[in-house]
Automatic annotation (TrEMBL):
Domain B12-binding residue range list: 18-153
Keywords annotated in UniProt: Cobalamin, Cobalt, Isomerase, Metal-binding
SUPFAM superfamilies noted in UniProt: Cobalamin (vitamin B12)-binding domain
Keyword Cell inner membrane belongs to the record: no
Protein name: Methylmalonyl-CoA mutase
Amino acid sequence: MNSLQQCTDRSTAAPPPHARVVIAKPDLDGHDRGAKVIARALRDSGFEVIYTGLHQTPEQIVSTVIAEDAPLLGLSVLSGAHLTIMKKVIKLLQQEGAADVQILVGGIIPESDIPELEAMGVDSVFTPGSDISRIVETAHRLTATANDIREPAC
């Protein structure tokens, strides 16, 4: 039996990992507990998570998304600058030919700003108290058809 057959014949093989997701804290936000909780939940559900850390510029965030070839970007914004930051991030993604990247935004987002974020191209917005399992389910749904889903290692 060759190695390809061994890989495909395993009945106990783990399911393939899900797509990569970049989690970022833009601008001057200094509180990242929520971002880390979401990053861990996504990792535990099979995503490959790249957490950029605090104080990232839109340019740094987009650069990481491009470098990691991630089909999903999650931003945690607590500063109130979510509209300005998202306009810049979406513009940069478009300039880099990555307008197909799915975007999740979480944080202190007034309900009245959600339609504007969605009109910009944000795929889903999560406010404080959102159910973590709903966030994970949304990430699964948004990446279910992503071309970037990796093959399992044998």
